[in-house]
């Protein structure tokens, strides 16, 4: 695996692949890689000839009181893991390479960027959209792979790519979970032992809500309230637990069939998010 930290060097390495008409897949990450990221790279390998991974802790998607400075930076470990799973090229730029000057251009996916996680993390999704758009312009891949765990991010990037006619296909990859159901996340490492023991309750509540919908319950507000209460009783501070239309993340109504249940809740200072896609039986 080759590693570069400059856009110019990245483009030089990509040129012969493109000339040879090789299919290029791209997996953007912020590093501190876990098995979920590695599944993305493995999926990329199955669908393309060459796999490019970026590691960039993007300052513009962190709020002023968030963990940008303390976000785990584990490049040597990450690089070893990426080589092992067969990534071809690692792009590891510094902040000055991606943002040589403050960007006057912003990308805001109206509606999608300010709801759910966007409501409690103002500006977060504008930062995500900006950096993903910049990285796509740098790598110009045929295929972009993103985890389904960040369902709102995936939905928003799909919409940005469609709205801006960016020439890339997008593939969402299923969430990787620990044996007890907790979705893998770089932030799980912040949990204390008792918090880690409580954390799988988030997925259990999502499943309970999904089961209720499958059984034909249509009182979505009632399901949301019951599962939010259960989370609160388990020690979480709930940000949202909401049943939405999968296509645009708007609140679901009883006639909607393709649904996603989105949840975000804090255990101590650690904010966990998860989701469950479910199809209503009508
Ligand atoms: O999901 C992430 O790790 C980040 O939001 C992404 C897509 C790499 C953009 O910085």
From TrEMBL:
Keywords assigned by UniProt?
Answer: ATP-binding, Cytoplasm, Ligase, Nucleotide-binding, Pantothenate biosynthesis
GO MF term list? ATP binding; pantoate-beta-alanine ligase activity
- Annotated binding of (R)-pantoate, by residue: 61, 153
Q: What reactions does this protein catalyze?
A: (R)-pantoate + beta-alanine + ATP = (R)-pantothenate + AMP + diphosphate + H(+)
Q: Does the keyword Ligase apply?
A: yes
Report the pathway entry: Cofactor biosynthesis; (R)-pantothenate biosynthesis; (R)-pantothenate from (R)-pantoate and beta-alanine: step 1/1
Main location per the UniProt record? cytoplasm
Question: Which residues does beta-alanine bind?
Answer: 61
At the top of the EC hierarchy, this enzyme's class is: ligase
> Which PANTHER family does the UniProt entry name for this protein?
CYTIDYLATE KINASE/PANTOATE-BETA-ALANINE LIGASE, PANTOATE--BETA-ALANINE LIGASE
Q: Its function?
A: Catalyzes the condensation of pantoate with beta-alanine in an ATP-dependent reaction via a pantoyl-adenylate intermediate.
How it assembles, according to the record, is: Homodimer.
Q: What is this protein called?
A: Pantothenate synthetase
Give the species this sequence originates from.
Answer: Methylomonas koyamae
Top-level taxonomy: Bacteria, Pseudomonadati, Pseudomonadota, Gammaproteobacteria, Methylococcales
Gene that codes for this? panC
């Amino acid at each position: 695996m080759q590693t570069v930290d400059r856009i110019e060097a990245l483009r030089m390495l990509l040129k012969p692949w493109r000339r040879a008409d090789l299919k290029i897949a791209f997996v953007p990450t912020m590093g501190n890689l876990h098995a979920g990221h590695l599944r993305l790279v493995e999926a990329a390998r199955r669908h393309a000839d060459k796999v490019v991974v970026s590691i960039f802790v993007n300052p513009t998607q962190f709020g002023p009181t968030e963990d940008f400075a303390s976000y785990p930076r584990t490049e040597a470990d990450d690089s070893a893991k990426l080589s092992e799973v067969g990534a071809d090229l690692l792009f590891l730029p510094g902040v000055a390479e991606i943002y040589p000057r403050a960007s006057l251009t912003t990308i805001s996916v109206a509606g999608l960027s300010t709801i759910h996680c966007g409501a409690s993390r103002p500006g977060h999704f504008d930062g995500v959209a900006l950096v993903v758009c910049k990285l796509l312009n740098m790598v110009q891949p045929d295929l972009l792979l993103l985890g389904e765990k960040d369902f709102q991010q995936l939905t928003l990037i799909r919409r940005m790519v469609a709205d801006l006619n960016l020439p890339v296909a997008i593939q969402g990859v299923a969430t990787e979970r620990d044996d007890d159901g907790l979705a893998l996340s770089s932030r799980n490492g912040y949990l204390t032992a008792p918090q880690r023991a409580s954390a799988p309750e988030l997925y259990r509540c999502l499943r309970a809500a999904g089961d209720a919908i499958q059984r034909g319950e249509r009182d979505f507000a009632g399901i949301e309230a019951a599962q939010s209460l259960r989370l609160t009783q388990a020690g979480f501070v709930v940000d949202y637990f909401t049943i939405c239309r999968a296509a645009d993340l708007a609140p679901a109504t009883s006639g909607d069939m393709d649904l996603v249940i989105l949840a975000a809740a804090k255990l101590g200072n650690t904010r966990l998010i998860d989701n469950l896609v479910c199809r209503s039986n009508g």
